[in-house]
Amino acid sequence: MNEHELRRHVGAVRDAHLPFGLDELGMLEQLTVSASGAVQVVVNVPCHHCPGLQMMEHDIHLALRSAGVQEEISVSFQGRKNWTPSDIAPQARSAMMALGIQSIVQLPARSRESA
């Protein structure tokens, strides 16, 4: 499988706390496959102390093994950028609202004059 197909499999892995995939939530930052076939996945998470990280890592491994990956898999939760609610895909945000799940959109910083 190519990187695009593998990304689709990993992107469908559900968040540990919400009924949405990592890609829908804007958490799947990067997936690369080396020349040897090893797969490296970078996931941005809202909280690096989340107790669900082990579950997500396990589910990512399962998704890649189910997709036929036999080489080494590494998963990192230390992305290059910080995840924010604005990373959530509009369709997922609408679905969250329909389920009564409130997603916070980052508000513009308050100016010192209005503080």
How much helix, percentage-wise, in residues?
25-40%
**What is the topology, as strand order, of the major beta sheet?**
1-2-3
Determine the CATH topology.
GMP Synthetase, Chain A, domain 3
Number of helical segments?
Answer: 3
Number of strands: 3
Shape: globular
- In whole angstroms, how far apart are the ends? 53 Å
Computed Rg: 16 Å
Mean pLDDT: 88
* CATH architecture assignment: 2-Layer Sandwich
Largest sheet: 3 strands, mixed
The proportion of residues in beta strands is: 5-15%
Q: Could you say how many structural domains there are in total? A: 1
Q: For the record, what CATH class applies? A: Alpha Beta
Give the class from helix and strand content and strand pairing.
alpha+beta
What is the chain-wise order of helices and strands?
HEEHEH
Short description:
This protein is an alpha+beta fold and 115 residues long. The protein has a single domain, classed as GMP Synthetase, Chain A, domain 3 (2-Layer Sandwich), CATH 3.30.300.130.
Report on this model:
The chain has helices at 3-11, 53-66, 90-98; strands at residues 28-33, 39-43, 73-76. It has 115 residues and is an alpha+beta fold. It has three helices and three strands; from the N terminus they run αββαβα. The N and C termini lie far apart (53 Å). The protein has a three-stranded mixed beta sheet with strand order 1-2-3, with helices on one face. The radius of gyration is 16 Å and the shape is globular. It has a single domain (3-83), classed as Fe-S cluster assembly (FSCA) (GMP Synthetase, Chain A, domain 3, 2-Layer Sandwich).
